[in-house]
């Protein structure tokens, strides 16, 4: 008995929803593992676990972001060899087992090793999941679907705060990391039900398999690239970012991204601890993490629409200015309700401000080297992600915790200046793509 075209389309949409849903869950676990360290950190410092001091805690926070840098830089190469599906499964297994190392750690060195390995898995999973979602998003809905995918990362941050609130006092901090081992049970589900990336199949010449999957999931089949990209081609694309006066523009984008990710990961790591330093109870400090990530979810959903109307460069600059103001206000002890509002709005603007840097680079870049421009802007920014947690630890260790929010606010101001200057310098250039392209922030 044959199926009607409408039934086939409906079936394809349901299967596409399954593929996107599995990626969403994987990124949820990614966010849980990323944010859990910041959620348990106030307890670790108060109990002096492992003899932990603020500067050592900052170093530990940087280990994870350094691992993410390694994972992000190597993900593309590894995925091209083994496939995006296998890489996603491997990343979930890696950061889950690494959390087990943290839960069992008897010394700060072993704990640091666990966080570094977890970072490698976390850094490799997110860009791969974005690629998978781009392949299987419903026709004409790729940008919106990627935006929805990024909400999973902040949902994981919310979950990490509740895990810490519910488990630390009755069970202990190790239980929070045992929860982060639970995604290991999700890996077989991912391996069984997640289809391979269409882009990977097309690149490998497995055209029949890719065509069958595209028809089954009712999605567009990616166009085959003409020829393989050689090392010389990749170097030429990178060199093009520095030819003529482009080197100024490139450095402005890189500096804006550095400050943006310093702010994102610095605040993600130290928000509960800094709020404790401002006199808020631990339960309230963890609630701020929930509110901050709720703001992040809202920000991801509205940033693309705002950029469509006003332009990504302008939105990025204004968003960073508002973020800096919000972060600075957090250094002032206010009524809890007002603080909650400020934390929420800061979350709205902070994460989507960084996303708009990538969108700006994409819009302003030449089509021939757009991927290189966005990739290197993200890569240089990740050095800021490593520096942010370390900076917060150093300030606290020196007894300057009150300066923590101020330092992060200054990072936001610097990114506003750099992205604003870059936008003004290129304002006379004709945009080469739509402002609707949404790129993952982290």
| Range of helix content | over 70%
Radius of gyration (Å): 21 Å
* Overall strand count: 0
Main sheet overview:
none
> Which descriptor suits the 3D outline?
globular
H/E series? HHHHHHHHHHHHHHHH
Rounded to the nearest angstrom, the distance between the terminal CA atoms is: 47 Å
Which structural category fits the helices and strands? mainly alpha
What are the low-pLDDT stretches, counting only 5+ consecutive residues below 50? 1-9, 430-437
Q: For the residues shown, what is the average pLDDT? A: 84
| Strand fraction | under 5%
Count of individual helical segments: 16
Question: Topology, pairings included?
Answer:
Layout: H1 5-46, H2 54-82, H3 84-104, H4 108-136, H5 142-167, H6 173-179, H7 187-193, H8 198-203, H9 207-217, H10 231-239, H11 246-277, H12 282-310, H13 312-329, H14 336-364, H15 370-397, H16 403-425
Helix pairs in contact: 1-2, 1-3, 1-4, 1-5, 1-11, 2-3, 2-4, 2-15, 3-4, 3-6, 3-7, 4-5, 5-6, 5-12, 11-12, 11-14, 11-15, 11-16, 12-13, 12-14, 13-14, 13-16, 14-15, 15-16
Provide an overview of this structure.
- The chain is mostly helical and 442 residues long.
- The protein is built from 16 helices and no strands.
- The longest helix is centred in the first third of the chain and has 42 residues.
- The chain is globular.
Task: Output the keywords.
single chain; 442 residues; mainly alpha; 16 helices; 0% strand; globular
How would you concisely characterize the structure shown here?
The protein contains 16 helices and no strands. It has 442 residues and is mainly α.
């Amino acid at each position: 008995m044959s199926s009607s075209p409408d039934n086939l389309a409906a079936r394809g949409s349901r299967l596409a929803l399954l593929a996107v849903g599995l990626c969403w869950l994987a990124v949820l676990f990614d966010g849980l593992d990323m944010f859990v360290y910041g959620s348990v950190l106030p307890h670790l410092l108060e109990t002096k676990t492992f003899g932990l001091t603020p500067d050592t805690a900052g170093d530990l926070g940087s280990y994870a972001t350094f691992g993410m840098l390694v994972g992000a830089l190597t993900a593309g190469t590894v995925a091209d060899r083994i496939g995006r599906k296998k890489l996603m499964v491997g990343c979930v297994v890696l950061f889950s087992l690494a959390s087990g190392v943290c839960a069992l750690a008897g010394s700060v060195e072993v704990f640091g090793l666990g966080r570094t390995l977890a970072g490698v898995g976390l850094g490799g999973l997110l860009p791969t999941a974005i690629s998978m979602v781009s392949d299987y998003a419903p026709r004409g809905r790729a940008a919106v679907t990627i935006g929805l995918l990024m909400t999973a990362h902040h949902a994981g941050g919310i979950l990490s705060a509740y895990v810490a609130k519910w488990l630390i006092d009755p069970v202990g901090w190790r239980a929070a990391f045992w929860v982060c081992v639970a995604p290991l049970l999700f890996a077989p589900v991912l391996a069984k039900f997640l289809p391979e990336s269409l882009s990977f199949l097309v690149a490998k010449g497995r055209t029949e398999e890719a065509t069958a999957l595209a028809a089954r999931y009712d999605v567009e089949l990616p166009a085959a690239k003409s020829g393989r990209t050689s090392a010389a081609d990749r170097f030429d694309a990178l060199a093009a970012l520095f030819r003529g006066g482009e080197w100024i523009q490139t450095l402005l984008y890189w500096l804006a991204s550095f400050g943006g990710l310093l702010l994102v990961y610095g605040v993600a790591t130290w928000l509960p601890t800094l709020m404790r330093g401002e006199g808020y109870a631990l339960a309230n400090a963890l609630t701020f993490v929930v509110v901050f990530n709720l703001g992040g979810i809202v920000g991801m959903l509205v940033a693309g629409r705002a950029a469509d109307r006003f332009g990504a460069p302008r939105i990025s600059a204004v968003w960073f200015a508002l973020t800096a103001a919000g972060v600075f206000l957090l250094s002032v002890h206010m009524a809890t309700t007002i603080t909650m509002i400020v934390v929420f709005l800061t979350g709205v603007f902070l994460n989507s401000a960084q996303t708009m840097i990538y969108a700006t680079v994409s819009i302003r870049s030449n089509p021939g080297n757009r991927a290189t421009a966005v990739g290197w802007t993200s890569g240089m920014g990740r050095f800021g992600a490593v520096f942010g947690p370390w900076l917060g630890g150093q300030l606290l260790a020196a007894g300057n915790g009150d300066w923590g929010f101020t330092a992060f606010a200054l990072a936001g101001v610097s990114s506003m200046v750099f992205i604003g200057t870059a936008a003004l310098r290129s304002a006379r250039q004709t945009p080469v793509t739509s402002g609707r392209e949404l790129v993952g922030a982290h």
